Amino acid sequence: MTQAPAQDRGARSRDAILDTAGALMARYGYAATSISMISAECGLPASSIYWHFGSKDGIYVAVLERARIALLAALPRAEMAGADVAQRLDAFLADVQDAFQRHPHGLKLLLGLGMVQQDASAAAVAEVHRYRDALVAWAHAALCAVFGLDDRPQVADELARFTLRMASGTAVARWFDPSVGLDTGQLHVALLALAAHHDVPVRATPREGALPRDAADRE
Asked: Measuring CA to CA, how many Å separate 120 from each of 28, 63, 114, 161, 189?
């Protein structure tokens, strides 16, 4: 009878450690976040943290894994509704903005790769790569649907990585100004321009029987 309550307490302690560590690492980075900081913030002894995770690397891997699972579960399916490229791109960017707002720590944790590369374990670095690759794969599939790029995967990959770099840059800016938001208007313009640079059709196809815009204006 006592095993279940003990397991519940252990799960609550583990979640409290992960909540605290995720917030601290997203705010200060991996290198600047210590076990003592996590212990003081969550109110649990360092021995409990080591018992659950073994090391700071172990905490970082668990934090990243939980953030990756939560963010990917929140992302919509790659198919984008809309009659033309502009409408589908608006739908995609609205989804990106929504995920960015609801998961403020996610991209900041992902940016930790540069800070952990030198002294983190292979498991921590591998989890960062899994996190990043999963986001690229989702953005790739979504932008394939937006621009009709099923036969041009290299262009879709470039657009996906550009989108995530923009989002990452906004996450960096938030370290200095928490009110900064992702500028989807500028990103919309930039993605259309980048697609057009690769000769991807980005304008709506006129409806059958409709006059071109300049002809309609002359009428």
From this structure: 16, 14, 10, 25, 38
Number of H helices, E strands in the chain: 11, 0
- Environment class of residue 177 by beta-carbon count within 10 Å: exposed (0-12), middle (13-18) or buried (19+)? exposed
CB contact set of 164 (below 8 Å; sequence gap of 6+)? 132, 135, 136, 139
Contacts of 117 (CB under 8 A, 6+ apart): 125
- CATH 1.10.357.10, applies to 3-197: yes
Q: Evaluate the CA torsion angle 57, 58, 61, 62 in order and state its sign.
A: negative
State the Cα torsion 48-58-37-32 to the nearest 10°. Answer: 170
The answer, as to whether pTM is greater than 0.85, is no
- pLDDT of 71 above 90: no
Predicted confidence (pLDDT) per residue in 174-211, tens digit: 767 777 778 889 999 999 999 999 999 987 544 333 34
Taking the C-alpha atoms of residue 219 and residue 217, their distance in angstroms, rounded to an integer, is 5
Q: Does residue 100 carry a pLDDT above 50?
A: yes
Give dist(CA 30, CA 51) in Å, integer: 20
